[in-house]
Amino acid sequence: MEPLLLRALKRQPIERTPLWIMRQAGRYLPEYRALRQEAKQFLTLCRTPDLACQVTLQPLERYPLDAAILFSDILILPDVMGLGLDFVTHEGPVFRHPLQDERSIARLPIIDPAIELSYVLDAIRLIKANLKDKTPLIGFAGSPWTVATYMVEGGSSKHFNKIKKLLYADPVQLHQLLRVLAQNTAHYLQAQIEAGVDVVMLFDTWGGVLSHADFLTFSVPYMQSIVTEVKKKYPNVPVILFTKNGGRQLEALVETGADALGLDSGANVHLARQITRHRVALQGNLDPAALYAEPAQIVALVEKTLAEFGPGGGHVFNLGHGIYPDTNPEHVQVLCEAVRNLSPQFHVSQEVVMR
Ligand code: 1CP
């Protein structure tokens, strides 16, 4: 039988709700901090398959999670497209060669992931060999719009002035950039699948900063073209789309042909169920800050979340966004046990649910 996560993403009947955690390998784990200190640079972890593999597996050694997620970053792609990525302490990601003019956009290459991103593909093969088919592996990339914000802003941004200026002053250039990114991203995700990932996810972290009309123009079509390209070659590999603050955009996201949509903690789950009408699975959406609560309260919040998603398949438990670095690792164990213990009651036989 297929792993629980894959059956849930395909909206098949399941016996309990699967759980994985965004940023499950990361700074809240002391063993991650130790490896990170040894490697000195975050990017060294990403570029060294053995280290990326070790970090990917760390949370699975501690917790009974239902998926592993490749340890990498959405900004690895623009790095190898020639922008040169650094992570600066207290500043986050910074590109040495941000996109500043038409020429720099026109020069962007179509890359061959087997060459430029071979270290990611090697990491995937190593992780898969270690997971021994028990636990599925999630591969990922950023959405073209989200990655473009970093490429044009030069790093993280609060107000997105530069990319919004490009959007209004020269939309043709922005579309050109998004087209190249969509093509590279589709090839990159196909290569990740060839190397062994079982599911792919697109992180559209900044889709929510666009107006509804601009979201339909500058984010959705490029995610849709990636879904189409991936599905053409790998129709059975589930694709998850996660637009942070995308609760208003669910109909457009369903129409991309994705198998599942991630919901952030602000999303109205009842409304999301009504809009999506079981055409996709839903993933989420416990507030990452809920893990600051006492164990008994965490259990109660898990039950509340499960009840909001309601009975039947098509739900993958997750946080609404990445886990915070100052989360108590013992509280993650509480979360795992609560989802395991409380979710079976939401998956009684179809017959009972129908009545
Ligand atoms: O050790 C450290 O200090 C590095 C912190 C870190 C980590 C652990 C960064 C820097 N990236 C990652 C790994 C990462 N990034 C994963 C690994 C798998 C996992 O366990 O989930 C994933 C899926 C990502 C995806 C990612 N990177 C996103 C999308 C998801 C999200 O959080 O919204 C984004 C926006 C990034 C960019 C990025 N990389 C790192 C940071 C601090 C940031 C965010 C910068 C910003 O806020 O603008």
- Helical percent range? 40-55%
Which ligands, by name, code or SMILES, are bound?
Answer: coproporphyrinogen I
Flag low-confidence runs.
351-355
Shape: globular
- Going by helix content, strand content and strand pairing, the class is alpha/beta
The radius of gyration over CA amounts to 20 Å
Please describe the biggest sheet, giving its number of strands, its sense, and whether it closes into a barrel. Answer: 7 strands, parallel
Element string (H = helix, E = strand): HHHHEHEEHHHEHHHEHHEHEHEHEHH
How large is the count of helical segments?
18
- Distance linking N and C termini: 27 Å
Mean pLDDT: 96
Assess the beta-strand content as a share of residues.
5-15%
Count the strands?
9
Q: Strand order of the main beta sheet, please?
A: 1-4-5-6-7-8-9
Written account of the structure:
The strands form two sheets. This protein has a seven-stranded parallel β-sheet. It contains 18 helices and nine strands. 46% of the residues are buried. Helix 9 packs across helix 11 and helix 16 (295-309) crosses helix 17. The chain has helices at 4-9, 30-39, 42-47, 49-62, 76-83, 102-106, 113-116, 118-131, 144-153, 161-169, 171-195, 212-218, 220-233, 250-254, 269-276, 295-309, 329-342, 350-354; strands at 68-69, 85-88, 92-95, 137-142, 199-204, 239-243, 260-262, 281-286, 315-319. The structure holds coproporphyrinogen I. The site of coproporphyrinogen I has 20 residues, from strand 3. Coproporphyrinogen I binds at residues 22-27, 36, 42, 69, 71, 73-75, 92-93, 140, 156, 203, 205, 322.
